[in-house]
């Protein structure tokens, strides 16, 4: 079935439709990962996005139960050069087409993704729709639609829940966390309680945590910082605090560091960062559109991490104030596990 990706600037790309046959509108985002499409599709940080995969083909590995980053994906669609329609028969895997229909996600393949990526590189953020036509009425529809804000409120858990274990107790503020983060904590025997983004300081205090994590998630820090600031006002400097992704941006904003908008959002697994003290280079997974201007970091950090593309600050930690924050996802998934020792640094602060 022929379907169209239409852009708010009046251009369109034709291709073959697959998955759900619904009309969907979202923000176009380049996804540079060469593997791990399931993790990208189910990552809550991609809420509201139409993902454009730069990999020549996706879908050949199928979908399995252990690589979900959330049970109910919140992406608005996917665009690909090619999608594998068949996989080897196995009860443990589901083909991508069936998964997309089940989760009500539309997709288009046989699209010139190289031309589309060039357009995105030139214009930055673009609103787009997946539709059955590319006529004047379709363009009128996309221009009239307003994309939602404060997406963290949409994807955050509504009720607290536990991920029990036998070690240190950590409270996680859910701005759109990935299951992989909970797996990384569980491997370290961390006893985790996941809390809504708007939890009160008293509710956190009553858990008697030994550390706090502000998770990754979608959206802008200014949309969420007023909900997280009361938690930081109460616990900053008292409990170890780890910020990841959006959590990194919120913590940086709270500390009055200057955030710099990236020319193009980092969304993939191939972003190298250098650790200032050791000159070690880590290959990291990022899903973020802002980093920190190094000159705006006015406090002494024990370690800092810099993105090699932009030379902007992509992470820091300070033992005195008990803070660790990274723009990159330490758990990878998909991606390298070079940075997973960040969790170990955080746990050491609790000793």
TrEMBL record:
Gene3D superfamilies: 3.40.50.880, Carbamoyl-phosphate synthase small subunit, N-terminal domain (3.50.30.20). PROSITE patterns: GATASE_TYPE_1 (PS51273). InterPro entries: CarbamoylP_synth_ssu_N, CarbP_synth_ssu_N_sf, Class_I_gatase-like, GATASE. Residues 1-131 form the Carbamoyl-phosphate synthase small subunit N-terminal domain. Pfam families: CPSase_sm_chain, GATase. Coiled coil: none annotated. This is Carbamoyl phosphate synthase small subunit. It comes from Lactobacillus gallinarum.
């Amino acid at each position: 079935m022929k379907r169209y990706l239409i852009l708010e600037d009046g251009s369109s790309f034709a291709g073959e439709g697959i998955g759900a046959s619904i009309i969907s509108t979202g923000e176009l985002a380049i996804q540079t990962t060469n593997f791990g499409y399931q993790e990208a599709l189910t990552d809550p940080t991609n809420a509201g996005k139409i993902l454009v995969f730069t990999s020549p083909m996706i879908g050949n590995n199928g979908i399995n139960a252990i690589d979900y980053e959330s049970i109910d994906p919140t992406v608005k669609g996917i665009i690909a050069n090619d999608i594998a329609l068949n996989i080897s028969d196995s009860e443990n895997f589901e083909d991508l087409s069936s998964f997309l229909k089940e989760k009500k996600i539309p997709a288009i393949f046989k699209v010139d993704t190289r031309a589309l990526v060039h357009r995105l590189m030139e214009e930055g953020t673009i609103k787009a729709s997946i539709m059955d036509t590319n006529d004047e009425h379709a363009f009128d529809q996309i221009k009239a639609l307003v994309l939602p804000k404060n997406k963290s409120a949409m994807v955050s858990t509504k009720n607290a829940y536990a991920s029990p274990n036998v070690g240190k107790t950590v409270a996680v503020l859910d701005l759109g966390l990935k299951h992989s983060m909970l797996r990384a904590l569980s491997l370290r025997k961390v006893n985790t309680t996941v809390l809504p983004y708007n939890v009160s300081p008293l509710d956190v205090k009553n858990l008697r945590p030994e550390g706090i994590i502000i998770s990754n998630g979608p959206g802008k820090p200014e949309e969420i910082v007023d909900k997280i600031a009361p938690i930081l006002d109460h616990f900053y400097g008292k409990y170890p605090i780890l910020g990841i992704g959006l959590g990194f941006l919120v913590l940086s904003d709270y500390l009055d560091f200057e955030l710099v908008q990236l020319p193009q959002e980092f969304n993939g697994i191939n972003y190298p960062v250098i650790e200032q003290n050791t000159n070690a280079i880590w290959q990291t997974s990022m899903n973020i559109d802002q980093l920190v201007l190094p000159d705006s970091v006015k406090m002494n950090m024990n370690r800092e991490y810099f993105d090699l593309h932009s030379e902007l600050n992509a992470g820091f930690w300070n033992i005195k104030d008990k803070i660790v924050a990274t723009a990159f996802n330490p758990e990878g998934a998909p991606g390298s596990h070079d940075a997973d020792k960040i969790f170990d640094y955080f746990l050491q602060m609790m000793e």
